[in-house]
Amino acid sequence: MVAPIQTLGELRRQSPHPRSVKEEIRNNLLRKLSANETLFPGIIGYDETVVPQLVNAILSKHNFILLGLRGQAKSRILRGLVDLLDAQVPVVPGCEIHDDPRAPLCASCRARVAREGDSLALGWLPRESRYVEKLATPDVTIADMVGDIDPIRAAQAGLNLADELTMHYGLLPRANRGIFAINELPDLAGKIQVGLFNILQEGDVQIKGYPIRLRLDVLLVFTANPEDYTARGKIITPLKDRIGSEIRTHYPSTRHHAMAITSQEAWTDRGALKTEIPSYVREVIEEVAFQARADRKVDKRSGVSQRLPISTLELVVSNAERRALLNRETLVVPRVTDIYAALPSITGKFELEYEGELRGAEQVARDLIKSAVGGIFSGIFEGADTRTVVEWFDLGGSLPLGDSAPAEDVVARAASVQGLRELAERAGAKPGTPAPVVASAIDFVLEGLYAQRKISRTEDRGYTAAEATPRRPSRREEAAALDESLPFPGGKKKYYN
C-alpha cells in the first residue's frame, strides 16, 4: 500500500492542479462505467429509467433534484453518491470547511499556507465525511445553512464584525469539497432558498448586512415530493432554474422488482427457527401494495410506500414465528391468513380519500388483501379444476381452522376435503414436504376460493359453503315496492309523469 503524501510540497509535485468535486465524481463514474461496475448497489428497478438520467446529470456536472412520492429510494440514491468520491482527499488540518491546501478559501488557511509553505503537514478526509444531509423544515434559518457572525469570537480575537474570521460556518460551507443533500426541499423557507442559489451562483452571501464571499466547491442535490409543491411549499423559480436536472423516481413497475426490494430490505431471518416463506405469500404481500396504489379509495397524491410490503412481510413472519413457538414447531412457514395479522402495518401506510374514510382504514385494508389473494390465486391456479372442493362445501361440509392451528392439525382436517390436497400440491406442497409447508399451501387454496366467492369464511377462520347471492329485483319490482311504501291521501296512489 502506497503511503499517503505527508506535506504540501509533495502534493504540489505529484498533483499541482486540484479537481472540483463534480470533476472528481464524473471521472470516477467514467471509470465505473468502463469497468461495467454496479453504480448504485441495492437500487432495484431503476436500471432503464432513473439510473441513466442520474448518469447523464453527473456526466454533465449538474446539481440535480429527485422528484417522487414517499418510499421511492430517493434518499438512498443520494447516499449512494458517496461511492463516486475518492477514497480520501488532502485538506488543511483543522479547517472547518475542509480547504484544499493548493487553493484555500478561508482567510486562516490562506495565512497558514503562506506561513508554512511546502512544509505544511496535510490532513486526509475520508469519503464518508464528505457527505452532509439536511432535512428541510420551515424553522431552518440561514445561520443553520450558511452560517452566522460570532460576536464572541470577534471580541476574543479583537476583530471587526465584518472580518471573515468572525464567521461561524453552517452546514453548506462545512460540505465544501463534498456533497450537500437537502431532503424535502419545498419545506425550506423561500428566503433560505434564495441564500442557497446566491452562494452557489455568485459565491457570496450577506449575513446580518455583512457580505461574505465563499467560492464553495460542492455538489448540491435535492429530493422533493411533487405533490408538496402546493401542499406545503414550493421551490422558488430562481433556485429551480439553477438546478441542472430534474429526475423523476417511481414505484416498482413489476411484482418481480418489488419482491426483490422487499427481500433485500425486510428482516426475515429469525435465528433460532428456520424460516421458509412461500413465493405466493410474497406475491400476495406485494400485490396488496399494487392494489392500494390503484384503489380509488386510497389517496394517490400521498402514494403507497414500498415500506408497506417490507413491514408487512416482517409482521407476517412474526405471526408465523409466534404460531410455531406455541405449537413447538421447528420450521416457520407463513400462511396467507397471517397477512391479516399485519393490518396494523398496512393501515398506517396509506392515506384515504373520502370514500375510503367512510369505509374505514381496516376494512379497506381487508378488501385489498382479499383482492390481492384472489389475483395471485387466479394466476397460479389458472385452468385448475376446483369444483370438487367447492362441491364438498356445498354439500354441507365445514372446515374450522384457527389462526394458531398447528400444521399437523390443518393437514389432518384438510384430508377430509376431497381434492384439497391435490390443489395444495399445485401451490408447492409436494409429497414429502414438511407439514408447515403443506398447511400453508392448504391455507392459500382455501383463502383463494374465499376471495373468489366460491366458499365462505367466518371471522374465526371457519370455511363453509358460499352464501347464495340474493337476486336483485327488477325495476318493475322496485317501483311496485316503492308504491306500496309511499302514503297517499285517501288511500289512492298518485302517479306523476
Can you offer a commentary on this structure?
By secondary structure, the chain is α/β, with parallel strands linked by helices. The protein has two domains: 8-248, 3-Layer(aba) Sandwich (Rossmann fold); 255-465. It has 22 helices and 16 strands. It has a five-stranded parallel sheet. Strands 14-16-15 form a three-stranded antiparallel sheet. Helix 12 packs across helix 13, helix 12 (255-265) crosses helix 14 and helix 13 (279-294) runs antiparallel to helix 14.
**Low-confidence segments, ≥5 residues, pLDDT <50?**
490-497
Overall pLDDT score? 87
In percent, how much strand structure appears in the residues?
A: 5-15%
Overall 3D shape: elongated
Alpha-beta classification: alpha/beta
Major sheet size, sense and barrel closure: 5 strands, parallel
Number of structural units classed as domains:
2
Distance between the termini: 97 Å
Assembly context of the chains: single chain
CATH architecture of the largest domain: 3-Layer(aba) Sandwich
Please name the CATH topology of the largest domain: Rossmann fold
Q: CATH homologous superfamily of the largest domain, by name?
A: P-loop containing nucleotide triphosphate hydrolases
Can you give the helix content as a percent range?
40-55%
Describe the strand arrangement of the main beta sheet, using strand numbers.
Answer: 4-7-10-1-11
State the CATH class of the largest domain: Alpha Beta
The total count of helices amounts to: 22
The radius of gyration over CA amounts to 32 Å
**Total strand segments:** 16
